[in-house]
């Protein structure tokens, strides 16, 4: 009788769940699938997940009415994302944009220069936002809470095991652990599973549900082992520590009881002992980082008699590359604080502001290593503040729900695991990954307790129908991404540059290495067709440096058009103003038909390398390396050796 009463108390709450019975496991499946396919091309995995989410919105509209403030904030965020579509003349125009216009680059009349990919990126933001608001309108029963949390932990554990098998045994995917392109995103996923698992373990212990306890211990141990031993992400380990520290105070000593306190102490000893006793790459990375931070603190100690002036003295920038990245991103934000440069435009505009990060000279910076800085730089401070307000509102809503209801251990763990995504977003970009954002929404939603008053706050039929209609947008967006084009026939701009670069590069190889029996007229026709297609794409993506590079390569195939080639080279150089490799590649391209342009490119490369050596803290000598490359390049053309020597002497 006692066990039946306990079962009824736990699994038959006074208020029934306010959701469709399958919805949480269905969303869990989308998260689980998304974690595995996240390494696929962005348009493919985002398109598939968007279609699945839209289908779930149609099938299972939310039953609980969210506070109107949530919808107001969500709408405000999307509206502010369009701030970059305001006229550019309303704001100060940066010098680099004026220079591009003087070279004939069409920058348009809006703040955002490439409006097509910006519009598509805002569509992606809308899919994420709609998914979160839709899912938050459901409520999980105690049984659904336990099943979903356990499924999530086991799903993360299974992901880790499969990833390790692929990495170590099969070597199919890559040598990197995990299927996310960024190893830190795998670390975030493992941390979410670990923290959630701690809550499931403690809740199962209090419920005296031993098969659930056994499964949760197994899943959590695998997640922890993967984070400490298989993964190399420092962020994952730190998130586990932070999440555990945040979770314990939310439970409270009274709730834990005598047996719960003993279980927590035992778990803590096992986790800390396991980490300290095992040697791993991530442990070494954390140790090295700690030593660098300690060295920086010692060198910058104001009580020291004399500051260290050793060339090898560590600086804050040398501890982690995120520091100079953030500083350069802040310089970028200063030029467009209210509007941003446009959604999805960071990778194209950031090179204009690369000073501290120019030390990694030819690396591509796709984002500023922070979700929050990414949003500010692309959509403006206003959009970021709205997003922050929504995050804090959700956190407060979740905390109040936990302290008012039962099952505190598991609900608190789910909530803390959910906020690891925006928390990690301070120093990485997990929030821009749809599977991780959706995992955060899922855990947040199941952490909310069904209120006895929820019957009075249910969505009426017309509201549910409206939200179902909203679900048509993710389906439409996803289908267009999968097909690679919009109903108008225009290609997806976010993928167009990559596709055209691949096609144009293939055509370039074909026309420069034609079959022996092919007529020159036919080769010239192919070249003209390929370049016209390339120019058409450049008109839509004028800031794409890779397309500009190929355009210069095509133009350099002919003699007698030196002014055109010079202009194309200058445009490409302006798009990457601190890169030494850009003028060096141009020099090699022009050697055959435009040797004078090669000399100019060598001179530009030496100027840039001298600036890097004089302004950046690095043991690498850029100028010496550039001189070596110039001599190597000119060695193949004896008639150019004298020209190369003259250029080098002019910069010594």
Structural class: mainly alpha
Number of helices: 29
Outline type? globular
**Proportion of residues in extended strands:** under 5%
What distinguishing features does this structure have?
652 residues; mainly alpha; Serine Threonine Protein Phosphatase 5, Tetratricopeptide repeat; 29 helices; 0% strand; disordered N terminus; WaaL-like; transmembrane; O-antigen ligase family protein; ligase activity
Report on the structure:
The chain is mainly alpha-helical and 652 residues long. It has two domains: 15-288 and 362-483, no CATH class; 493-650, Serine Threonine Protein Phosphatase 5, Tetratricopeptide repeat (Alpha Horseshoe). Helix content is 69%, strand content 0%. The N and C termini lie far apart (92 Å).
Condensed summary:
Its main location: membrane. It is built from 29 helices and no strands.
Ordered list of secondary-structure elements with their pairings:
Elements: H1 2-11, H2 23-37, H3 42-59, H4 68-81, H5 95-102, H6 115-136, H7 142-170, H8 183-207, H9 210-230, H10 234-251, H11 253-277, H12 281-299, H13 316-319, H14 322-335, H15 346-349, H16 371-379, H17 381-404, H18 408-424, H19 434-447, H20 461-470, H21 472-483, H22 493-512, H23 520-540, H24 545-555, H25 562-575, H26 581-590, H27 595-615, H28 622-635, H29 641-650
């Amino acid at each position: 009788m006692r066990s039946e009463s306990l079962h009824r108390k736990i699994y038959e709450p006074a208020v029934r769940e306010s959701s469709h019975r399958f919805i949480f496991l269905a969303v869990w499946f989308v998260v689980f699938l998304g974690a595995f396919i996240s390494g696929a091309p962005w348009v493919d995995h985002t398109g598939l997940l968007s279609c699945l989410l839209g289908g779930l919105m149609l099938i299972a509209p939310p039953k609980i009415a969210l506070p109107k403030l949530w919808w107001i904030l969500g709408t405000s965020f999307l509206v502010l994302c369009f701030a970059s579509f305001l006229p550019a003349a309303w704001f100060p125009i940066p010098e680099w944009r004026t220079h591009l216009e003087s070279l004939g680059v069409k920058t348009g009349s809006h703040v955002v220069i490439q409006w097509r990919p910006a519009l598509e990126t805002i569509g992606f933001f809308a899919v994420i936002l709609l998914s979160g608001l839709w899912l938050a309108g459901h409520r999980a029963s105690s049984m659904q809470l336990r099943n979903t949390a356990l499924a999530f932990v086991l799903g993360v554990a299974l992901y880790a095991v499969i990833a390790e098998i692929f990495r170590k045994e099969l070597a199919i995917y890559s040598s990197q652990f995990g299927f996310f392109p960024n190893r830190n995103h795998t670390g975030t996923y493992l941390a979410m599973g670990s923290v959630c698992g701690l809550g499931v373990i403690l809740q199962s212990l209090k419920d005296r549900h031993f098969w659930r306890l056994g499964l949760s211990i197994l899943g959590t141990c695998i997640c922890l082992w993967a984070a400490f031993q298989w993964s190399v992400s420092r962020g994952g380990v730190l998130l586990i520590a932070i999440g555990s520290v945040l979770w314990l105070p939310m439970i409270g000593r009274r709730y834990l009881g005598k047996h719960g306190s003993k279980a927590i102490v035992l778990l803590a000893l096992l986790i800390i002992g396991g980490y300290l006793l095992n040697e791993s790459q991530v442990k070494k990375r954390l140790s090295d980082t700690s030593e660098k931070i300690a060295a920086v603190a010692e060198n910058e100690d104001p009580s020291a008699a004399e500051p260290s002036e050793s060339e090898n003295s560590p600086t804050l920038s040398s501890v982690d590359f995120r520091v100079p990245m953030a500083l350069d991103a802040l310089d970028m934000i200063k030029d467009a604080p209210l509007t941003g440069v446009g959604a999805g435009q960071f990778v194209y505009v950031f090179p204009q502001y690369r000073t501290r990060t120019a030390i990694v000279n030819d690396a591509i910076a796709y984002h500023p290593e922070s979700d929050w800085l990414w949003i500010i730089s692309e959509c403006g401070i206003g959009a970021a503040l709205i997003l922050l307000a929504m995050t804090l509102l959700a956190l407060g809503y979740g905390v109040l729900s936990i302290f008012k209801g039962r099952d505190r251990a598991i609900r608190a763990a789910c909530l803390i695991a959910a906020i690891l995504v925006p928390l990690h977003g301070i120093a990485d970009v997990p929030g821009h990954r749809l599977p991780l954002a959706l995992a955060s929404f899922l855990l947040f939603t199941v952490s909310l307790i069904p209120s006895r008053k929820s019957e009075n706050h249910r969505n009426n039929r017309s509201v549910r129908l409206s939200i179902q209609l909203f679900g048509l947008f993710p389906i439409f967006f996803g289908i267009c991404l999968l097909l690679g084009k919009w109903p108008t026939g225009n290609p997806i701009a976010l993928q167009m540059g990559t596709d055209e670069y691949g096609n144009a590069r293939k055509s370039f190889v074909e026309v420069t290495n034609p079959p022996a029996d092919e007529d020159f007229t036919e080769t010239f026709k192919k070249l003209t067709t390929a370049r016209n297609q390339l120019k058409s794409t450049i008109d839509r993506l004028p800031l794409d440096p890779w397309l500009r590079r190929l355009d210069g390569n095509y133009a350099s195939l002919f003699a007698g058009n030196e002014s055109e080639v010079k202009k194309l080279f200058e445009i490409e150089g302006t798009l990457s103003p601190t890169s030494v490799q850009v003028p060096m590649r141009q020099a090699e391209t022009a050697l055959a038909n435009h040797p004078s342009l090669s000399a100019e490119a060598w001179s530009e490369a030496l100027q840039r390398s001298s600036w890097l050596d004089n302004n950046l803290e690095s043991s690498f000598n850029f100028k010496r390396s550039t001189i070596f490359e110039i001599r190597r390049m000119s060695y193949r053309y004896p008639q150019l050796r004298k020209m190369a020597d003259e250029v080098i002497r002019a910069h010594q």
